[in-house]
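Pasting as-is:
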Amino acid sequence: MMRQKKLGEDLYNQLKDQGLEVLLDDRIERAGVKFNDSDLIGIPVRVTVGKQASEGNVECKDRRTGESKDVSIEELSSYINQLL
C-alpha cells in the first residue's frame, strides 16, 4: 500500500510539472466513493494506482467515453495528452 501511495504522489508531481491540472485524492475512503466523487466533480481522466502498480501499470478512465485502459507508467503522460 505504501508503494502505491508513493507512486501516486510521484505521478501527481510528474503530471503537475508537465502543466496538467491534477487532483490527488488521498482520502481514506473506499475506491467507489472516490470514483463517484471524481465523476461528480467532472474529472475528465481518472488515473487509478492499484494492484498493477507493482507491475508498472495504472488504470486510466476517459470520462467522456467510459473506456478504461491499463497504461504503463512511462506512457501515462502521452496517453493522457491524447485524451485531452
